[in-house]
Amino acid sequence: MVDERAQRIAEFIAPLRVEPGRKVKLHKDFDPRLHSSTVSRKKEGREILQTGIALLADYQARLAAQDTYGVLLCLQALDAGGKDGTIRHVMSGVNPQGVHVSGFTVPSAEELDHDYLWRYAARLPARGDIGIFNRSHYEEVLVVRVHPELLDRQKLPPESRKRIWHRRYREINDWERYLTDNGFRVLKVFLNLSYDEQRRRFLRRIDEPDRNWKFSAADVRERRRWKDYQKAFSEMLSRTSTPWAPWYVVPADRKWFARICTAAILAHTLIEIDPRFPTVDADTRAQLAAARAELMAQAPASANGRTTHRPTAAAGAGRA
Ligand code: AMP
Ligand code: MG
């Protein structure tokens, strides 16, 4: 049963994965409006998402108990691509103690005083945790690439600027490989929004007062650079989808479908890790048995051997 489910999830996400080495042309290769023939309706989608959320909760509990592997999910998208909503929905069922979300905005002076991966390394998940990067180290080859003046603020020595993008792709791949080799799985989701759907979402943010806070004038300025971003995304996908840390391009024009896809991608990785609750050895089992005997011996006479036990003082205080 579980294997069948794992198989279905693997097949569902396979078309979204960018094969390592593939040269991606975003606007030609991936359709933002796509949804699969197996899940074509929102209602059906909601049910599948609920199943996915329950599955994630179960695996996350085991990941935490095993305390050996960590998972890092990097979410990238253009403005209004649906990152926040995706995180809110996909993680809605898991224990908040086991998940850490980090958002990245314009770097601070202190951050700019360090190497460019420093601030991302500081927010990596611990073993047993799921870390989510809402924007990630990939901004360093996206917004920084589209706006080279941001690079000037990074105070790089002149020799470090040679073939900089080529080098950054390699450094990011190496860093992710290092993390993977040390037990931290890295998965990367690009929420692929269409030009027209972004326009609609921006208009909604302007027209609906409760959404005004989500909109900034900079958003339309960035939108004017749409083509440059598509190019930067295409190159990023072509150069940094690796066997150890693949990219997934998720069609994002339908929010509900993007959420199912993201949940499935995370579930797939957790199923692959297959974390187990630790089992105890004979020594520990003997200790458990001894502790049990001691606790049983403390049962009040009226408890008749039942293990539930209410201290009389607390019960009395409750009544007072
Ligand atoms: P938001 O996600 O709407 O809060 O916006 C965050 C802003 O920070 C976006 O405009 C990003 O492009 C920008 N940002 C994120 N990372 C970097 C970076 N490394 N350098 C410059 N700007 C960044
Ligand atoms: Mg924004």
TrEMBL record:
This is Polyphosphate kinase 2 family protein. GO terms for molecular function: kinase activity. Gene3D superfamilies: P-loop containing nucleotide triphosphate hydrolases. InterPro entries: P-loop_NTPase, Polyphosphate_phosphotransfera, PPK2-rel_1, PPK2-related. It comes from Pseudonocardia xishanensis. The keyword Kinase applies. Keywords: Kinase, Transferase. Residues 42-270 form the Polyphosphate kinase-2-related domain. Pfam families: PPK2 (PF03976). Residues 298-320 are annotated as: Disordered. The lineage of its organism: Bacteria, Bacillati, Actinomycetota, Actinomycetes, Pseudonocardiales.
